[in-house]
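TetR family transcriptional regulator
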Amino acid sequence: MGRPAKLSRDAIVAAALESDLRTVTMRDLAARLGVSHSALYRWVADRDGLFDLISEVMVERILPTTEPTPETWREWLADLAWKMHDEFLAVPGYAAHVAAPHRHNPASFARLHDKVVHAFTLTGASPQMAQQSWLAFGLGVVQWLGAQQAGHDLGPEAPRFDLFLDVLLRGLPAREPTPRS
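Structure:
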C-alpha cells in the first residue's frame, strides 16, 4: 500500500477557507497544505480552479436540505439567503469575490440557479419571470453581501440584512410591469 494522498478536494477547500481569499496565492495554499505548489497545480490549475472548488462546497453548504413548496417557497428562499449571509461572510474575501464580475463555476451555480428558479415557478411565475426573479434575488443578495464584506461605507442608514431580505422577498416573484403611459 502506498502513502495516503495528502491532497483532496476537501483538504484544499478547508485550507483555502482558513485563508483570506482576497490575497491567498497558490504558493501560500500549497505551504499551508504541506505540499509543493506543483502538487497543488495537479488538483487546481489556477485561482479560478480554486474558486470553483470553493464554490462547489459553498453551494453544498447553503442549499437547504428541504425542497420548496407552493406554501414554503418564501421561507425556503429566506433560509437560503441567510445561509448565504452566514457562509459567505464567514470567509474573508469570498462574498466580495462572488459579487465581482467573474466566471462562476457552471456546475455548482447551475444547481443553485435551478433550485431557486424552481422555487419561483412554484408561485405560478412563468419560466421567464422565474428567471428574472432568480436574477433579482441572486444579484440582490450577493451584491449586498459583497458590499458588506468589501467594507463599502454604506453610511449610517445602511440597510440591515433582515430588512433588505424582507423587502426583496416581498417584491418577488417578478411580474411584468404595467406599461407606462
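The chain has a mean pLDDT of 91.
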